[in-house]
Automatic annotation (TrEMBL):
A molecular function GO annotation: dioxygenase activity
Presence of keyword Oxidoreductase: yes
Gene name tied to this protein: LOC107459851
Family that this chain belongs to: Belongs to the iron/ascorbate-dependent oxidoreductase family.
Needed co-factor(s): Fe cation
Domain Fe2OG dioxygenase: 219-320
Name of the protein in its database record: 1-aminocyclopropane-1-carboxylate oxidase homolog 1 isoform X1
Keyword set, alphabetical order: Iron, Metal-binding, Oxidoreductase
Domain of life of the source: Eukaryota
Transmembrane segments: none
Cited Gene3D superfamilies: B-lactam Antibiotic, Isopenicillin N Synthase, Chain (2.60.120.330)
A Pfam family reported for this protein in Swiss-Prot or TrEMBL: DIOX_N
PROSITE patterns cross-referenced by the UniProt entry: FE2OG_OXY (PS51471)
Amino acid sequence: MESEEAEGTIVKMMNNCDDRMSELKAFDDTKGGVKGLVDGGVTKIPTMFYHPLDKFPNSSSTEHSLIPVIDLEGVTKDPITRQQVVSRIREASETWGFFQVVNHGIPGSVLEEMKEGIKRFFEQDVEVKKEVYSRDNTKPFIYNSNFDLYSSSALNWRDTFGCQIVPLIGKPQDLPQVCRDILLEYGNNVMKLGITLFELLSESLNLHSNYLRDMELGCTDQISCAGHYYPPCPEPELTMGTTKHSDGAFLTVLLQDHIGGLQILHNDKWIDVHPVPETLVVNIGDLLQLLTNDRFKSVQHRVLANKNDSRVSIASFFGYNSLASSTKLVSPIKELLSEDNPPKFKETTIAEYAAYFRAKGLGNNPLQDFRI
């Protein structure tokens, strides 16, 4: 492992770079990520992590308690319960774009082991992590810091690994041993939950329960995941754990630990999504907003940096990896359109949207550029 002195030298070298691109490359070349800076004893964050102040205030009320927590117990067995859940999901998707689910069928032991698996990966020896550090998205497993490192106006205080887990790309041995088994188990569990969620979302649109699943767009064809590690930040007021953004996929299922920091933008205020034990956060993605012609909302959200603790989370994206090469056309669902509700978005290919989303980077709202 590199010594603290060597890490400190890297930080000084980055801060002394003549231009931003050189500074970014110096950081990238360490392959140590943000955690490498923290391990090196950094007390002042490099300027490339500075974020401008956000114009929206934090909520000073208890509005966070209004973010729906939906109980899925009995949703596959009791028709009355199912109708109640469908109604709540409809309201949450149209109003908040976010909701949390309990009694979702994934054992608490699996959730805890998944969080521990993320932590084990990021807290192992940096020399081991360097072997899978890459910006080549065609690899079955990659780890890096800030996927949009060279296009973002301000970096986020986090490191990330990414892989497609359902179906698995490559061999199980391509996944790190420290989290291999739990990644596969967790992915299979999330897929079962996702199928249920897409059925409930279809019904909330007054469509057949299999409507979204049966579309040729591949809403439930695969899951890609991003495991995030947010080290303690010496100057959290100057940066962000994750800058404000919406998700480019159809749907996201998020597992977060107990630290907190996730916020959603609602009525021009940032509202906390406080962690609830054994609960998963679900949010609508850009492509589902496009499909529903603005009925469901893909809402901007962010993660605050914090000074005292490391935070971990794992986001499971439905329909994300396949977007990169899919030439399938996506446009508002015809059954939802009428003379009073004409199409609000241009028809586009999924690949075109995915490429545009990546090129814009986090902190932008690419869906707005596809409006008619």
